[in-house]
Amino acid sequence: MDKIIINGGKKLKGEIKISGSKNSGLPILFAALLTDEPVTITNVPSLADIDTTVAFLNYIGKKAVKKGNTVKASPSEQYKHVAPYDLVRKMRASVLIMGPLLARLGKVDVSLPGGCAIGARPIDIHLEAFKKLGVEITVEGGFVKTHAKNGLIGADIEFRFPSVGATENIMLAAVLAKGKTRIINAAKEPEIVDLQDILNKMGAKVKGAGTKIITIEGVEKLHGATHKVIPDRIEAATYLIAAALTKGEVLLKSVVPEHIQIVIDKLEKAGMEIVSKKDTVFAKWVKELKPDNIATEVYPGFPTDVQAQWMALMSLTKGKSTITENVFENRFMHVAELQRFGANLAVSGNTVTVTGVEKLSGAPVMVSDLRAGAALVLAALCAEGESVVTRIYHLDRGYERLEKKLKQLGADIKRVR
Ligand code: EPU
């Protein structure tokens, strides 16, 4: 298994281009199932989860090929309606197969995704919503079996929590349902707006993405489209924090600053100098950073996907801060590993109290999940001495050319087998 070796202490300096968003690219790839006409998606990041999804589409019967950062999906064969365990277990976003296949076939059997390192992550919100659209659901032999005998019928659906995946799944289904669907208490993340954009390019009638209520008028058929995936806001935030931790200066290109406004605001408050322009963000360390509390919330709140990286940053500020995780119930797997670098962290329920230390020291650490892994790499970049980061396949799921980009910024980092 590959590992990353980092010799910490190098100031990061330079510019990098932010890749296309993983969490936007995944639902958009699944949207290709909704039409038999060609769909071309550009700015698709080269990541393990994207490869898994492309393989999944091909398994289901949709011919899709990824070349560079472009995926072309062409007219399809008859779709299969069963998503087996081997495909679903690799990636939780596989449940997004449900919406498009219910829309096209009226049925789909999906292996239950199960829990993962960051929590139980049930899919009850998805399933309750599908029931409202007229879907019968049974659980048998580890599979969720779904069937819309009379086709999907539009309905008003109110989510108990604005789940990102459930919002996407219902949008993917309702675009071809009979009549009007309203998702109330929908997720407002930029990835939802991106999905609305491609669906509308395909001839769907979706409005309201980015607000609490999304309205979808079902149409008979969708057609082909070409779409460019939005920049990855979590990758962007991660590199800004890398600049802060290494006392460096970094120019990010191809970003939407507004998508990471809360992270920019927090970094500025901590003492970073930041200049945002239309599609660039420049961040420069100018003075010792001050601690600041964060609590993760749904968009536009502080992203749960940046919580671990923020913890690494706070570990080196003078004084105390708290980090509260409100989105996932078990997303502190990085705490024990950050402690190996010498971070002073105390967990109590869903809050970690960070007491800043003078320095971190290089250590062997193991990645438990994607964003925990990002936090460990960040800590290693500013720790004294060598760190060996193992189980980096988690990082390959979400950070395109991570060590190459960091090297371009001057980090002493290498991947070894
Ligand atoms: N939840 C339920 N029931 C459901 C669905 C969700 O209880 O039916 C709970 C989850 O267990 C979790 C919370 O609601 O505690 C949020 O889940 P949500 O459905 O919003 O998240 P997701 O769609 O599973 C996406 C991203 C995650 C990101 C979250 C929150 C993708 C592929 N994944 O997950 O990204 O953390 O939204 O913003 O879009 C990552 O990139 O590292 C990552 C984990």
Overview of this protein structure:
This protein has 417 residues and is of the alpha/beta class. The protein folds into two domains: 3-18 and 231-416, Alpha-beta prism (UDP-n-acetylglucosamine1-carboxyvinyl-transferase, Chain), CATH 3.65.10.10; 22-228, UDP-n-acetylglucosamine1-carboxyvinyl-transferase, Chain, CATH 3.65.10. Helix content is 31%, strand content 25%. The chain contains 14 helices and 24 strands. It has helices at residues 22-31, 48-60, 85-88, 98-105, 124-132, 164-174, 190-201, 233-245, 261-270, 307-314, 333-340, 370-382, 393-396, 402-408; strands at residues 3-7, 13-17, 39-42, 63-67, 70-74, 82-83, 107-111, 136-140, 143-147, 156-158, 180-184, 205-207, 213-217, 225-228, 249-253, 273-276, 280-284, 294-295, 320-324, 344-348, 351-355, 364-366, 386-390, 412-416. A four-stranded mixed beta sheet has the order 22-23-1-24, with helices on one face. Helix 1 runs parallel beside helix 7, helix 5 runs parallel beside helix 6 and helix 8 (233-245) runs parallel beside helix 10. It is elongated and about 65 Å long. It starts with a strand and ends with a strand. The model has no long low-confidence stretch (mean pLDDT 96). The structure holds uridine-diphosphate-2(N-acetylglucosaminyl) butyric acid.
What's the gist of this structure?
This protein is α/β, with parallel strands linked by helices and 417 residues long.
